[in-house]
Amino acid sequence: MRILVAIDGSDPAGMAVELVANLALPAGSTIEVLEAVESGVELFGGPWPAIGLVDADRLEDDLRAQATRTVAEAADRLARPDLTIEQAVLRGRPASVIVNEALRAGADVIVVGSRGHGTIQEMLLGSVSAEVVDHATVPVLVARGHAVDRVLLAWDGSSAAASAAGVLTRWPIFGGSTIRVVSVADVRAPWWTGFPEAGSPEMMTLYVEAADGARQQSEDMVREMVGRLGAEGLTVEAEPREGDAAAEIIAAAKTWKANLVVIGTHGRTGVARLVLGSVARNVLHHVPCSVLIVHAGSVERTGAKSEQPASPAN
To answer: What CATH number does the domain located at 2-302 have?
Structure first.
């Protein structure tokens, strides 16, 4: 595997480093530790009248020196005999640098920190991490903990969810994890039931039939995915739910005490842009554990499962 860990010297970035340090990576994997340093007027967020009073070059040099020390410390923490550790301090807008470097290096996954989660005050992901999640064409792991041994897979049968499931079978880091597959049945009355009078026997019959069909479909999808993952040698169990998809995924993660949610999303393509769907975004902002966001097709672009033995975590 090739992992790009993007850091900035903050505590959340330190958590990203700790999470990678604890992964059972296959021998021969490469970890690149990257920090981006803005330059010139970018250091001040744009043109600023007082910029002439500041030695911008000296400030940038100081920031690069600090970034170099921070990257070296993270690299020391991640070092193992059977891994290759690379260090990089690059110039430019952090989010753009991270996305471009992941593409250049052929990274399988980008790991970033998270500013917080849960409450209104803490729900912001952080502008750099959020932009990386939106723009990256490889999976992005947002770290909020140090382990990935209790993994919740959000499964709806879509191609995006299939890409998310693909990481569990292709990436050796999940070989010792327990996987819980969650599928959420939408039991709301669908549009095709028509518009009979609310509360009428006709309406109730249509609603019950539709809800039962949604539940059965959800249960069938869960069983099918559990069988597929189990056939790959993974420890896996099922949890069918019903209701609002994002709310139920978040509730399942909290109740089970998952330390990672793996979720796929269909990107809306624009000018080199992939924007999260609403379910993935709600889960990412509100779930209390790490989240691996997988854009549809991104796993297929980054390579297949390694057959090399796993390196024990530190």
So the answer is: 3.40.50.12370
